Amino acid sequence: MPPSSLRVVYAFAREMHPKTSEVFIQYGTAGFRTKANLLEHVVYRMGLLAVIRSRVKNGRTIGIMITASHNLEPDNGVKLIDPDGEMLEQSWEEIATRLANVSDNDLESTTEQIIKEVNADMALKASVFIGMDTRYTSPRLAAAAVHGVIALKGTPKEFGIVTTPILHYCVRCRNDNTYGTPTEEGYYEKIVGAFKNIREKLPVGGEYTTTLYVDGANGVGGKKLNIIKKSLGDELDLVLYNLGGNGGKLNLNCGADFVKVSQQAPVGVEHKPWQRVASLDGDGDRIVYYYLDDKEKMHLLDGDRIATLLASYITQLLSACGAQLRLGLVQTAYANGASTQYITQQLKVPVTCVKTGVKHLHHAAQAYDIGVYFEANGHGTVLYSENAKNTIKKIAEEGEVEQRKSAGLLLQYIEMTNETVGDALSDLFLVETALCARGQGARQWMQAYTDLPCRQLKVTVQDRNAISTTDAERVCTSPEGLQTRIEELVSGYSSGRAFVRPSGTEDVVRVYAEADTQQSADKLSAEVAQAVFDLAGGVGSRPELPA
Ligand code: G16
C-alpha cells in the first residue's frame, strides 16, 4: 500500500472518530479501559493496528474485543487478540499506547512510522474478527473498529455480541482449523459436545447433584448459557439468574468480581441452603463458585479453589493412565496463602507466581506439559503441550483397558478446555465434570483446605503509576517508605501478608491483606490502605478502619 493511501486514515479520524480528549491512555492489564465516551478514537486506531498486526503475521487473523469485562456499565474497553487466540504480544502494547495517544494531525505519520518499524508488508491481505459485550456503548465502538480496519484495506468480520473467550476461540480456529470451527456454533459443538460425551461415561452419584444455579452478572455469559441450556438434557440443569432483564445492571452488585471482592452473595439470585452457585463476570471470562449454608453464611470457592480442583482431577487421571507428564500451577500474589500451601504440600504440584494479568499467567503455564493457571478472581484455564496431547492420545490408543479409559476421559477434558484464554463457560463444564467424577458437592469441594481470611480494598490516588512493584507485585518499590511501612504493619499480625499494586483496569490502587482472622485481615487491609493514602498522594476521603 503506497503511503499516499494512508491519507484515508486521517480522513476517517477527522470526519468520524476525532480525538476529543487529551487524557493519556495506556494499554493496561487487559487492553485500554476507561469511560466509554473517551474511547471512540482509541478503538478506531486499534482497528488500524489490528490490520498492521495481521500483515506482520502474514495475513493471519487478529481479534478486537470491545469490552470492559468486570467494570461497571459506564466503562468500556478494547483489547487485541493475537493469532493463536492469546493476548496481544507485550512488545506491541507500547505501540498500541503510542498510536492511541497521538493527535489526529500526527496520526497519518505515526501510522506510517509504525508500519516501517514493524516491517509490515501492506500489500498483504489482512483479516480482523470483531466482537463486543452487551454494553449499550459497544455497537458504536465496534463500528469505529470496523472503520479502522477498512481505512487500511483490511477485511473486518463482525461477530456481534459474544463472550470474550468465544472471540479468542474463533480467532484461534480461523488460523488453525485443527482447533475447531471459527463460529459461535463451532464453539458450542466443541466445548458442550465434549462435556456431553464425558458425562455420558460418568454416573451421577455421591453428593453431586446436577442442578447448578448461575449468576450471569447481567452480561453476555448468562445469555450464552441460556442458549446452551436447551442442549444439556439431564446432564446439567442450569437455573439462570441475572440475565440482563428486569432492570438488572451489568456487574452491579452481582457477578464474579462483586462476589469475590465483597465476599457477599449477589443480588437477584434466589438462594437455597448448600446449593452451589456459579457467578460469571460481564464478558464471561471469569467464574467463581459459592454457596450459602443454612445460616445464610456465604462460602466462596474462588479461582484458587477451581485451580486446585482441576489440577488434582487431572493429576488423578494422569496417574490412572500412567502418563509421565509435568503438571504445574500458576498463581498471582492474590492467591490465598492456604491454597499455595495445599497445592505444594498436599498435591505436590509445583507453583509459579507471576504478575496480575492473564497474559503473564498464560506464558508461565506454557513452561509445563500441563499448566493450570488461575487468578484468585476466577480468571484461568488449562494449557496442554503438544507433547502432553500426543502422550495421552497414544495411551488412549495403545494402553491397557483401564489406562485407555482414563486417557479417553482426559482427551475429552482437553477438548472441553478453551486453551486460548480464561473462559467462564468452559471452566464451568470442567468444574462440573470434576465434581461429578468425584461425587462431590460444593461442601466436599470446600473441605480440601481452609482459606486464610483476606480482604481487598481500593484507594484512589492522584497518579496510580506512582506505585511501582517487583517480585511478582509482592514488594512495593515506590513511593519510598511504603514497603517498610507495609512490613511494619504486617509484622503485627499472625499469618499476616499484604501487598499493594496499581490496577491496570481501574483508576485505583489495589490493597490485599490476609491474616489469621477476618477481623485482623480487615484491620490490616485498612491500615495498609491508609499508608497508601498518606504516602502515595491519596485523594478524596481517607480509607476508614473497620469499627
Ligand atoms: C482483567 C485481566 C485480569 C485481571 C483483572 C484485574 O480481568 O484480564 O487478568 O486480574 O483485569 O486487573 P487489575 O487488578 O489490574 O485491574 P477482566 O475480567 O476485567 O478482563
TrEMBL record:
<feature type="domain" description="Phosphoacetylglucosamine mutase AMG1">
    <location>
        <begin position="181"/>
        <end position="288"/>
    </location>
</feature>
<feature type="binding site">
    <location>
        <position position="283"/>
    </location>
    <ligand>
        <name>Mg(2+)</name>
    </ligand>
</feature>
<dbReference type="InterPro" id="IPR005844">
    <property type="entry name" value="A-D-PHexomutase_a/b/a-I"/>
</dbReference>
<feature type="binding site">
    <location>
        <position position="510"/>
    </location>
    <ligand>
        <name>substrate</name>
    </ligand>
</feature>
<protein>
    <recommendedName>
        <fullName>Phosphoacetylglucosamine mutase</fullName>
        <ecNumber>5.4.2.3</ecNumber>
    </recommendedName>
</protein>
<dbReference type="InterPro" id="IPR016657">
    <property type="entry name" value="PAGM"/>
</dbReference>
<feature type="domain" description="Alpha-D-phosphohexomutase alpha/beta/alpha">
    <location>
        <begin position="61"/>
        <end position="101"/>
    </location>
</feature>
<feature type="binding site">
    <location>
        <begin position="375"/>
        <end position="377"/>
    </location>
    <ligand>
        <name>substrate</name>
    </ligand>
</feature>
<dbReference type="GO" id="GO:0046872">
    <property type="term" value="F:metal ion binding"/>
</dbReference>
<keyword id="KW-0119">Carbohydrate metabolism</keyword>
<keyword id="KW-0413">Isomerase</keyword>
<dbReference type="GO" id="GO:0006048">
    <property type="term" value="P:UDP-N-acetylglucosamine biosynthetic process"/>
</dbReference>
<feature type="domain" description="Alpha-D-phosphohexomutase C-terminal">
    <location>
        <begin position="493"/>
        <end position="530"/>
    </location>
</feature>
<dbReference type="InterPro" id="IPR016055">
    <property type="entry name" value="A-D-PHexomutase_a/b/a-I/II/III"/>
</dbReference>
<comment type="function">
    <text>Catalyzes the conversion of GlcNAc-6-P into GlcNAc-1-P during the synthesis of uridine diphosphate/UDP-GlcNAc, a sugar nucleotide critical to multiple glycosylation pathways including protein N- and O-glycosylation.</text>
</comment>
<keyword id="KW-0460">Magnesium</keyword>
<dbReference type="Pfam" id="PF00408">
    <property type="entry name" value="PGM_PMM_IV"/>
</dbReference>
<keyword id="KW-0597">Phosphoprotein</keyword>
<dbReference type="Pfam" id="PF21404">
    <property type="entry name" value="AMG1_III"/>
</dbReference>
<feature type="binding site">
    <location>
        <position position="281"/>
    </location>
    <ligand>
        <name>Mg(2+)</name>
    </ligand>
</feature>
<keyword id="KW-0961">Cell wall biogenesis/degradation</keyword>
<feature type="domain" description="Phosphoacetylglucosamine mutase AMG1">
    <location>
        <begin position="302"/>
        <end position="438"/>
    </location>
</feature>
<dbReference type="InterPro" id="IPR049023">
    <property type="entry name" value="AMG1_II"/>
</dbReference>
<dbReference type="Pfam" id="PF21405">
    <property type="entry name" value="AMG1_II"/>
</dbReference>
<feature type="domain" description="Alpha-D-phosphohexomutase alpha/beta/alpha">
    <location>
        <begin position="111"/>
        <end position="173"/>
    </location>
</feature>
<dbReference type="InterPro" id="IPR036900">
    <property type="entry name" value="A-D-PHexomutase_C_sf"/>
</dbReference>
<dbReference type="GO" id="GO:0004610">
    <property type="term" value="F:phosphoacetylglucosamine mutase activity"/>
</dbReference>
<comment type="function">
    <text>Catalyzes the conversion of GlcNAc-6-P into GlcNAc-1-P during the synthesis of uridine diphosphate/UDP-GlcNAc, which is a biosynthetic precursor of chitin and also supplies the amino sugars for N-linked oligosaccharides of glycoproteins.</text>
</comment>
<dbReference type="GO" id="GO:0005975">
    <property type="term" value="P:carbohydrate metabolic process"/>
</dbReference>
<dbReference type="Pfam" id="PF02878">
    <property type="entry name" value="PGM_PMM_I"/>
</dbReference>
<feature type="binding site">
    <location>
        <position position="285"/>
    </location>
    <ligand>
        <name>Mg(2+)</name>
    </ligand>
</feature>
<keyword id="KW-0479">Metal-binding</keyword>
<dbReference type="InterPro" id="IPR049022">
    <property type="entry name" value="AMG1_III"/>
</dbReference>
<feature type="active site" description="Phosphoserine intermediate">
    <location>
        <position position="69"/>
    </location>
</feature>
<feature type="binding site">
    <location>
        <begin position="501"/>
        <end position="505"/>
    </location>
    <ligand>
        <name>substrate</name>
    </ligand>
</feature>
<comment type="pathway">
    <text>Nucleotide-sugar biosynthesis; UDP-N-acetyl-alpha-D-glucosamine biosynthesis; N-acetyl-alpha-D-glucosamine 1-phosphate from alpha-D-glucosamine 6-phosphate (route I): step 2/2.</text>
</comment>
<feature type="binding site" description="via phosphate group">
    <location>
        <position position="69"/>
    </location>
    <ligand>
        <name>Mg(2+)</name>
    </ligand>
</feature>
<dbReference type="InterPro" id="IPR005843">
    <property type="entry name" value="A-D-PHexomutase_C"/>
</dbReference>
<dbReference type="GO" id="GO:0071555">
    <property type="term" value="P:cell wall organization"/>
</dbReference>
<comment type="similarity">
    <text>Belongs to the phosphohexose mutase family.</text>
</comment>
